[in-house]
Amino acid sequence: MSSGCLSRLTPIKEFFRSKFIKVSDQWVTNQLTANSGISNESVYQQWLASDLKAISPVNVLPNDCNQIKVDQISQKPNKSTLNGKFAVQINSIEDISRPKVLSEADAVDEEVVSSGDEETDNGNTKLFKRTKAKPKKEVTKRGPRMLALVVSDGITECKAIEYNPIECLSPSTPIGTKLLLSGPIDIYAAVMLLNARHVTVLGGSIPLESTGSQHSLFAIRSSD
């Protein structure tokens, strides 16, 4: 790398560090080699649009954040706390709230029918009412939304759930969206319990097929 590019390596890394993002020397060098005059903001936009797994990733999440830690006495999962700030990407996201099945109350229709040939004393046909019960209908409604996510720093993946509403996320949030997670974050049974104060959306997206992590979501769902 030229001396000019080398002189820009540290400032660019400092720029990312100011955003609580760690990037590798190799990846920054590749950006400068391709365009020695590239601006800090352009390098940042390249990072947002990249799959962290493919760009010389830097491990920022604890290696054991996806491992269930069990209390030796009670044999129940321990709760731990993740402190600090971590730039990650969404590898998968889905609403796993359980649908609620409700039965509509029986509705009764009344119809007036003739008794046939029977007549009253005044010669009018005798009428009577017959009731018909409508069949029950099952109405499916979802309970409160609960998003399940798999997030990754490019090396370590960790599951997370929306413990309280996070308005900046939705089931349609693009795969590869970069997030800044801010602790303290509780982790229970290897799942991060997230709420709005933990999550800042940075932006970006990547092709869906590049993550290969959809199976992890189903693991969360099947454990219910």
TrEMBL record:
Domain of life: Eukaryota
A family per Pfam: RMI1_N_C
Record's GO cellular component terms: nuclear body; RecQ family helicase-topoisomerase III complex
SMART domains listed in its UniProt record: DUF1767
Coiled-coil region list: none
Residue ranges of domain RecQ mediated genome instability protein 1 OB-fold in the record: 72-206
GO biological process, one term: double-strand break repair via homologous recombination
InterPro entries from the UniProt entry: RMI1_N, RMI1_N_C_sf, RMI1_OB
Record-annotated RMI1 N-terminal domain positions: 16-54
Family listed: Belongs to the RMI1 family.
Protein name: RecQ-mediated genome instability protein 1
Species of origin: Oppiella nova
